[in-house]
Structure formats: C-alpha cells, structure tokens
Specification:
alpha+beta, Lipocalin, 8-stranded antiparallel beta barrel, 8 strands
Length: about 130
C-alpha cells in the first residue's frame, strides 16, 4: 500500500507536468501576431488548390483539378486575422449562408504561409503571381 501511494503521487506529478506544458505551447501560438498585409495575394496549396486573399478582407478559393473550374468560378469568403487567429467565412451558394472556418497561423512570410485547423491539420501554401 505504501508503494502504491508513491506510485500514484508520481503519476499525478507527471500528469500535471504534461498538462501545464501543453498549455504553454498553445498560449505561445495565440500570442503571436502576424502582419495581415503579408496574407494579401494569391496562394497555392498544392498543384491544384488556390486561395486568394484581398486587401478588403474578401477572398476566393478554387481547385483546378476540375477542368470546368477557373478562378472566376471560385468560392467566395471573407476573412479576419486577429493575432494568429484566422477566421474564414465561406459563402454557401445553395443556402445563402456562410460556413465559418477557424485556423491558427503558424507561419506567414512574403512567400510562405501555414495555417492549422482545429484538428491540428496543417496546410502550407506558397505565394504565386
């Protein structure tokens, strides 16, 4: 019984240690501020997916893997950048509503942009002309 108490106390200390370390990492990302002027422009996710962020906080996204889709057919959205939190509200043509998508920007330079969704999936873009 005596050993069990020490073993339980050890696990409790380790649990608290990991709990507080995971919070520090998330807090440091939330405190980062990115210059939204760097986000303005056309970005390529992979060989077919594009996002365009405009200075008036509107944007479009399209996927050219469908030969019938061009930039003119792109899905529209509006966006807001607050620190490292990026919110995109995508317009739904079928219902007239919007679909909010929330991301955390992990990197934003003049040529590279990475955003992470709520499921920790990271998308990395490169700037194109």
């Amino acid at each position: 019984m005596f050993r069990f108490k020490y073993l339980l106390a050890g696990f409790l200390i380790l649990f608290i240690h990991f709990l507080f370390n995971s919070c520090k990492k998330e807090d440091s990302l939330q405190q980062t501020t990115f210059d939204q002027k760097l986000l303005i422009g056309k970005w390529q996710l992979n060989s077919t997916v594009f996002y365009k962020y405009n200075a008036d906080n509107t944007g479009t996204t399209w996927d050219v893997s469908d030969p019938d889709i061009t930039e003119e057919d792109a899905q529209k959205f509006n966006w807001k950048l607050d620190g490292s939190k990026l919110t995109e509200n995508h317009y739904l043509e079928t219902t007239g509503g919007t679909l909010p998508k929330n991301y955390t920007i992990t990197e934003l330079t003049a040529s590279k942009f990475s955003k992470k969704d709520n499921f920790d999936k990271v998308q990395t873009f490169t700037k194109v002309n």
